[in-house]
Amino acid sequence: MDNRNIDGEIELLASLMAHGGDDVVIPYIQVAKIFPSNIPHPHTFDYKLIDDSSLLMWGAKNGWSITMSTEPSSSPIDKSPDIRFRRLAAG
To answer: Do 15 and 83 contact (CB within 8 A), yes or no?
Structure first.
């Protein structure tokens, strides 16, 4: 089953480009809604866990390395870490 959110992927890429930086942190919930897995989130019914493989493939295709952020979550309610996008060096 393909859970891709093409419009969300386009918006995410536009947001990363608009930021202009090489190191961008996006809240978990935003990424989870664009790249949902089929696995329920253990702390909420509002969204599912992130489909890591789809997210990582998308990142590599679009020039971004993707990891969990080490900083505290931007949301006091969400227990999931934010997602860090680092621009890959061209070439």
So the answer is: no
From 63, 66, 58, select the one nearest 84 (Cα to Cα): 66
Provide the whole-model pTM: 0.86
Residue 33 CA from chain centroid, whole number: 9
For the chain, what is the radius of gyration of the CA atoms?
A: 13
String of DSSP letters for 38-51: EEEPSS-SSSEEE-
- Report the distance separating Cα 31 and Cα 26, nearest Å: 7
Report pLDDT digits (tens) over 16-25. Answer: 989 888 999 9
How many Å apart are CA 9 and CA 7, to the nearest integer?
Answer: 5
Closest-CA residue to 56 (of 20, 88, 18): 88
Interior CA angle at 31 toward 49 and 1, to 5°? 55
